[in-house]
Structures are given as structure tokens and as C-alpha cells.
Amino acid sequence: MNGIAPSSLGTLAVIVCSSMVFGCSTKTPPPASEPTPSTSSGQAGGQATGVRFAVSFPSTVDAGAAGSLDGRVYVILSNDESNEPRFQISGGLKTQQIFGVDVEGLAAGKEAIVDVTSVGYPRATLADVPPGTYTVQAVLHRYETFKRSDGHTVKLPMDRGEGQHWQHAPGNLYSAPQKLTVDPSKPDTLRITLDKVIPPIEAPADTKYVKHERIQSQLLTKFWGRPMFLGAHVIVPEGFDAHPNARYPLVISHGHFMRDIGYFRETPPDPNLKPDYSERFHLPGYNRIEQESAHQLYRDWTGPKFPRMILVEIQHANPYYDDSYAVNSENLGPYGDAIMDELVPYLEKKYRAIGEGWARFAYGGSTGGWESLAVQTFYPDRFNGIWAACPDPVDFHDYMTVNLYDDKNAFVSDQFWKKVPRGAFTNYLGHLAATQEDSSRFELALGSRGRSGEQLDIWQAVYSPVGADGYPQPIWDKLTGVIDHKVAAHWRDHYDLGHILSRDWSTLGPKLRGKIHIYVGDMDNYYLNNAVYRIEQFLKGTTNPPYEGEVDYGDRAEHCWNGDHTRPNAYSRLRYPQLYFPKILERLRKSAPAGANLKSFQY
């Protein structure tokens, strides 16, 4: 989960903003369930009146072999001078204004036009912008063409080491912020030049304990029609080099893209760290708290009593998102099989893992919570237990505040006389910060045809069938909220974990006994507790066999509560390994097959 929260979820469940755009080599019109994307290719545009922005880049910018660029141009308006406008866009209450338009074949000197026909957020169009002087900045998010093995040609942004953050993506063009007076009622063309390029990101360095791996996936390369890679951050246990004959259990920490492991720090906190303030937790100096917690994990990890296991964080950013959800998908390709059949065997061999299902575990929060339960469900023999915190919706009867099967509209209730908006983000007191209509508009501004790179669109990309144009079939119309129940039926049969567990319990149950552990706050900001209530009802009713796992709730706890009743959420969310590794070791001792060697790694 990332979505519309106004602040970062931190190390294990981070908020990210990325955007993807429409770009199709065919002339197929967009489906009825999405508005026609406005596309600019350097032409003057239509008959739109009023103010408009004309965005171009100079010939000094490298446009590649084609001499032109595909992608999406953003124009951002801000009345907050604390940072560049491009870093001030979110789904939260404090967002600034953004408009987006697709570009295809934009050459140097040609202008992309953003006008009243362009999709905006939070104001819908340029006509809705109050007259005034704003800090304005433009960005061009670059895309490449993929000729997939399913026969579709699509244009999407490939991750370039930034985790699908369009504001940070190397190679993207941007302009210097400038003060411009904007009056929507007056015809005017405001020109912006994209004369800056975001530089490459330096790869993180290995240390004694933290290693970085990257392999080419043959399965994903075949699907996408170009080289595709999987990566991993690996923390090796204390004594790894001194015990060359030891073989270790493997623990996968699922979650969002991280350039490096941020919750493990081999040095004390920076002595000159300028304290920040966490708006989410109302804590001053939260960056120091995070660094102190990361260094404490290092001290615990290297201490005499910490379980000796290999901890792996998978890197699987892709053209749709910072993370693949670790399953096979019609739109993303066989990421589940690529991870399990290519990356995991490679890591287990190189780092001397035991390499068998009884010694393999997973945990994660938010997106990682859903992924953990999903891999245990779809690969039941290859994991011996998962610990899923605040998982993304595990039952689509409660897709946050939407019942995808029974509701007609995702934005408002179905009553004839009274239409009540459905929430998307709230605090622990129930104060609403965004509705489902808000988050849909936010993603539509960042990318047409479901390529915003945001939360609703990645769920759609993972769960939906491929449309006729090669892009994911929308689950609902982003302008009206009308739900497509045929698409919802596909979601149910392939990715609704509650439905799949119930449908297949006679075969899955014997393989999952004692393996499922789920934790969520009863005031989760994204209403994720609603789906957990539903799946808990099923799990607790199982008898043949009983599930013999755990479902637990944090009183008034927000996203992402992980089962720790002893610490506030601001602190417990920084201690996943300390919380789960002892549970994993206990599970291992109870469930290892007879004759299994548990001594080599217990030193």
C-alpha cells in the first residue's frame, strides 16, 4: 500500500509517488471506462481558451536515437516556497496542484501544451485555479516502448534505480522553479523550458553485513521483450564468514522498493543530523529516532542471542510500480515465478541457505503484508510461515471502503436519494483526508490508462486482465466511479486471497496449518482492517484442518501496526526483525522435519 497518505510510512512500508502514462503504438480508442487521454506531440493544441502552458526542451538535451521523447509532461503550481514544486505532490491535504498531458514523439524545440483540457489534481482543470502568482515547475517523465511476448506494444517508464519516483527518475527532464502569474480567465501562453536532467543514481556499496545482488530474469526478459532484472538486499548473519559450514534459514522481507536497507545501520546516528518533524506521529526529530532504531538492529543482529538467519529484501521495481506484488500477472508478467524459481535459488545457493520450504519464511507490512500472505497461498509448500502486518485488501468484499462485487459505484453509496462519499484515507479519530474519488482523480492526473504508478493503478495492473490495447482493464471509471463487475470477477478468481483460501481450503488447508499470522490496527488509515475482519471470520471457522494461526488487532492503531502491543506504532514499525525473528525461530523448532539439522546455524 502506498496511496494517498500525506507522509511517509517509513522503512518497511514507504509512501511513494510515481507516474506512468498512456502511449500505444496502435490507434485503438480508449475504453469507455476511462476518459480519452490528452496527448501532445508539439502541436499548438485544440481550440481551448484561457491560459495555457507551453513546455519544451532544447536541442542540448539528449533525446536518444529517435531524436524525440515519449512520456508525460507535468506542470506543477505551488504556493509553498519550502521546496521545489515537484516534491510537493501527494494525495494528502497539503498537496500542491499538478496537471498532466501525454507526449509522443516530442522533439527538441516543439511544445507540449497544458491547457484547460488537461487533467488536474486537486483542481480538475486550469480553469479552476485561483488567479495569482505561483511557483511553477515542469517535468517530463520519460518512457520507452515495450514489445511484449503477448503481442502487445506498450509505452511505459522503466524504473531507473529510483523505485518509480517520477520526481527522482534519472533521465527525466525538469525546469527550474519560476514565479509566474496565472489568470485562467485571460488568454495567455506561459512558456517553460526543460533544460535540466536528473542524474543517475549511484548504486549502494556492500558492507560486511549488507550485500546487494542483481540478476537478469529470463522469464521476465522473455515477457517484456527487453532485458529485465531482479535484485535483492541481503543481510548476512553474524558469524557468516567464521562458520563456512553453516546453512541458514531464509527470511524474505516483502515491501516497497528501497535503494538500500534503511532499517539496518552499522554506525551510530549522524552527530550533526538536523531534526525533522513527523506530522504523522507528531514527533520532533523522527529522523533521529529512525537512525537510532536502525543502529539498534545492527547491535541486536550482531549480539549473542539474535537468531542467525539470512534476511532478504527483494528489488522488483517494474514498468508499472516500485514493486510487482510478487505474483504472476497478465500485465506485469511472471514475477512470482521469476522470484521463486530464479532469484531465490540464486540467493540460497550463494549465501548457503538451507534451501527447503520448511526453512523459508516471509513477513512484511502493507504491500509487503499482502505479498507475504499471497506467496504463502500461491506457493504453499515453499514457505513455512508468514507474518503479515496491515496487509493491503485481502478480501475484495472490503476493498478499503468498496465492495467490488456488490457495490455499483466506488465513489458514493448506492442509495437512490442520498449519495455518501466513500473514504480512502482517515486518521485514527476518523477524520477524513481523502475520498475514493479524490484518489482516483489524483492518479488520473499522474497518468492516463491506469499508468499513474500509484496505489489503485498497481492493484489494477496486477489483478486485471489485459485490455485490447495492451493495458490493464480498469476496475472502475476514474471520473464516475462506476465499477466493472466483469473485471471484479477476474480479480476474485485470481487474486482475492479470502476467496481463494475459502474456495481451495480442502487442498490448501493441510499445507497452511499454523503458517498464517496477520496483524492490523483497528483504525488503519486505509480501512485495511475491514478485509482482515472478513478473512479472520473464515480462518477461525476452519475445522478440516483448523488454520491454527493468529489474527490480532491494535487498539486505535493506525497503518502499519505489526502486532507489537508494547510500543507505540511510531516505534514498533521500526522493529520488524526483532519482533518476527524469534517467532520464526519458534516456528522452525516446532515444525522442522525429523532429522533436520538445526544446529549449524544456532551458534
Automatic annotation (TrEMBL):
Signal peptide positions (record): 1-23
Organism for this UniProt entry: Pendulispora rubella
Residues forming coiled coils: none
Pfam family, one: Esterase
Region feature (Disordered): 26-46
Keywords: Signal
Protein name: Esterase
